[in-house]
Amino acid sequence: MNWGLVGASNIATEHMIGAMRANGGEILCVFSGDESHGRNFASTHGIYEATTQIDALLSNSQIDSVYISSTNEKHFPQAMAAIEAGKHVLCEKPLALSVADARTMVDAARKRGVILATNHHLRNAGSHTAIRDMIASGRIGKVLSMRVHHAVFLPLYLQGWRINDASAGGGVISDITVHDADTVRFVLGEDPFEVCAISTASGMSSGVEDSCASVWAMPSGAQIMAHESFTHAFAGTGIEAHGSDGSIIGRGIMTQQPVGTVELVTQSGREGVPYSAHSLYSQSVKRFADAVSGTGTPAADGMDGLKSLAVAEAVKQAAAAGKRVRVNYGH
Hints:
By secondary structure, this protein is an alpha/beta fold. Helix content is 36%, strand content 24%. The protein has 10 helices and 15 strands. The protein has helices at 10-22, 35-45, 54-58, 75-84, 99-112, 126-136, 161-164, 172-188, 280-293, 302-321, and strands at residues 2-6, 26-31, 49-51, 65-68, 88-91, 116-118, 143-151, 194-200, 211-217, 223-229, 237-243, 247-251, 261-266, 269-272, 325-326. A 9-stranded mixed β-sheet has the order 14-13-12-11-7-10-9-8-15. The longest helix is centred in the C-terminal third of the chain and has 20 residues, at 302-321.
């Protein structure tokens, strides 16, 4: 597969370029609005061409697929341009800034006959797959509740627009709550229908929230309690699923690396749960490539991106309104 990068980003540098090449991909061009940055990025990573004109990248007939990792407010117009050009699209989360725009993207990709996928990396982790499989096989009985704690300290080099620019899609809800929504949807196989939330600016951000706590109601009756933050340097991360017959405790697994522990707790005692330690991003690229070739499906498709965005959007609305909000999936 031949790739074009829309955005000369940190995530492309740290994870995606290696994942593409590990799956046999070639990166032919990178688009950046900053000519000097794009040129240096291409030189550093051995990419054939850099451009400041996205049309130049999209008109390259040798490019099969584009990976979009620009700032959040650019995802929608850039993805729509790529879809119109007949390119397959793997887009970073959130898929767009609104459910309505995400729906437009999904519909456009379907009509154009191209693959649209969302790069929700956590569902590609072996740890999360192991949790999903245990729940599905009934190891903890009926799921009563889940707790997701994804409160971290946002590194200085990632702060910028994420902590001070609402128009660019900044804030912890767009950055992390959307990931947790996708994780819960993935491991439980159902979609939240109502949420309540409180958000705050607890010291890092300006003009956007940097911490949020929310509770989500599920069709099965399970309650989800989620906490996301940019300001917690020592809290650690994890996900817990508590059922009628046992609990699953994941520690240190809400991360970009295949690390952390998973433990099953039942009447019989505690036992560690093994899981595959493969690269989350390599798995995401492989699943995307399989979908493009017609031999599989993306790990998270456009509808997954839309639905996880819808949950995050409802959390933001609930925090602003101070009341319960129904999740609008744009049906």
